[in-house]
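thread: overnight batch results

M.L. [08:02]
morning all. the overnight job finished for the chain we discussed friday. pasting input first so we're all looking at the same thing
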Amino acid sequence: MSSSLLRRGGRWRLTSVAALAAILTITGCASTGASDKPATSSSQAPAGALPAAEGTTAYPLKLTTWAGESTLTKRPERIAVIGLNPNADALQALNVTPVYTLTDDPAAPWRDQAWLKKIEKVDTATRRDPINFEGIAAAKPDLIVAVGALEGKPDYTKLTAIAPVLDTKEEAAEITWQDLQRLIGQTLDLTAASDKLVASAEQAIADVAKAHPEFAGKTIAIANDYGPQYGLSYYTIADTFTEAVMLKLGFVAHPNAKKFVDEDVISDENLGLLDADILVVTYVSDEVRKAREAKPLFKSIKAVSDGRYVPLTLAKDDSTKLVTTAGKQVDNATWVLRAGASTASLPWAVKAVADQWLAGAKLS
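M.L. [08:03]
and the structure it wrote out:
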């Protein structure tokens, strides 16, 4: 499954990666140092504390990345995390509280606020800003989780001068949310815990599908209208992560989805390709929505004329919400379906789509 949006700098796609053994090279024997002793027994560990080690990861642990190698001499305790939300999500799911993170991470609506409050430093920097090397160094981490966050080898060199760095082995590597969780879990000697989290998230998706048998065998098309400058973009492209999630919910592959593999922008003359048992279009504003809905070619789409069309508009004051034409706010799951999937976010997003976006939707 692939994603059609790259991370900052254009390197990360949330799709499959080689076996974790190709990313991590384990050397030496299992550590028996103090860092492997159980951490606090509280339900939300303070920054720098980890759950008890499982004893399956051996330290020293060589972290082999596309930009070079660094070595964890012992199990890390103070973890800095940069990059897309899933990096922080994987830590949250494991009840590992980092000492440093970016400002994007608290904004995630699936974020555990109790966990968040224990982070020592939430930087004002976002994933779109240059890496704040000084801020990371001040947090005194012994591991930097930076999967997909590095622009080039100079970034890696500067970070490894602070602490060992975790990233994928290949520069253009693609990694699923499952493998990301397992990669971070293995690095922290929490492999079994990560496997359980992945299984739980996959079961949550299956449970949503079971609760909505009306989706089975139907087609769905999702598109985003960014306005006249960028146009209408097809979202559920063939062989992408977004399509795969819809298939998990019981929908069948849309016959036109393969037509947008090379170009996802939908010209006016091709609007008919959007027809499906259910059509969902998200809009950046009401003005853009009204302009689109006024177009005769859009009106002629059978899903639109038959009332099997769900328009959702970005809320003016809250990017985590979409608004229906009736004025009801629903959760904005587009980021998760595009590039933000994790064991924490995906169950949330799937429920948002099934229970909120498609609530009361008319299916053919």
